[in-house]
Amino acid sequence: MSQKTEIPEHTVSVNTEFGIKSALHVPAFSERSEYVPALDEAYRFDPEVTLSLLAGFAHNRRVLIQGRHGTGKSTHIEQVAARLNWPCIRVNLDGHISRLDLVGKDTITIQDGLQVTRFQEGVIPWAMQRPMALILDEYDAGRPDVMFVIQQILEQDGRFTLLDQNRVLHPHPYFRIFATTNTLGLGDQTGLYRGTHSLNHAQLDRWNIVSTLNYLPAAQEEAIVLGRVPSKNTEQGKHDIQAMVALANLTRQAFSVGDLSTLMSPRTVITWAENCTLFHDKRRAFVVSFFNKCDESEQNLVKELYQRCFNEELVPSDATA
Ligand SMILES: Nc1ncnc2c1ncn2[C@@H]1O[C@H](COP(=O)(O)OP(=O)(O)OP(=O)(O)O)[C@@H](O)[C@H]1O
Ligand SMILES: [Mg+2]
After folding, report:
1. Are residues 281 and 201 part of one domain?
2. What does the pLDDT look like over 244-294, one tens digit per residue?
3. Fewest beta carbons less than 10 Å away: which of 6, 187, 265, 320?
4. Nearest CA owner, ligand 1 atom 1
5. In this predicted model, what pLDDT tens digit does every residue of 44-55 receive, in sequence order?
6. Which atom belonging to ligand 1 lies closest to the Cα atom of 68?
């Protein structure tokens, strides 16, 4: 690994780096290694979530970010790491990640013409011995065997026992651990997040800080979309984005009262704005970005919401795009 510095040598101002009113300074590395995420200049930080994440980085707190899909949870952690030059690795706890992937396993290799068995470290022992932020993405999708492996490193001293090796690993002082989840322990009550599990509360209890990142106020969401798709930065473009975010909010309201079984996430709004620049047609872009994902029985309601925000019909010929 090309991380030459093992400890953060300086501090950065939260005010200047994250645009959040605060006198705080947080530790940062001075060199960027290959594991530091690429900086996204257009990223806009949510003050509360950012302060939670910074407490995690600065004071070694375990931080869990919960929220609906596409609200920016995973990228938020990466973008904080990018500004601190903190190496960062993201592990998606999908159904295929196994205990062996996390802990490590014996592998057979050829050395000097002979077959030798060698223990190959999994991602947890590898990451925890370095100044590294480990992001456990989709935490609520992890299989129970995987979750019990993780439980060990959530303990306060975070030691990790490699049973097959009779070794106990101590975490590097700048090893950090974060997670993102759509549901919060009780399983999915919305029907949106198939494949998630209810979480063991003894495990949930081990997270020191839990923050929620859901939908932002319209003006902030508009600024995010505009930052992502700068070609929309015209009078007409801004007007469109306002209407797009308004429509997204209507789908969220309709979802919460049970009229729609799906909703537009901030990610969908960004994709729609991007697709507008590809199709040069916001209706066609809407149809392919969201409308076609809706159940047929709900498409009339979505057409009505579109009409309300844009003052024009989402004409039937578009619906077959
Ligand atoms: N505050 C923001 N500023 C700029 N871009 C953002 C912001 N929030 C989200 N985005 C963009 O929205 C998209 C979705 O973000 P991300 O993948 O982090 O969401 P998520 O909450 O992790 O979703 P999921 O629950 O589906 O994993 C990304 O392309 C990201 O760059
Ligand atoms: Mg994510």
Report:
1. no
2. 999 999 999 998 888 998 999 999 999 999 999 999 899 999 999 999 999
3. 320
4. 44
5. 899 999 999 999
6. 25
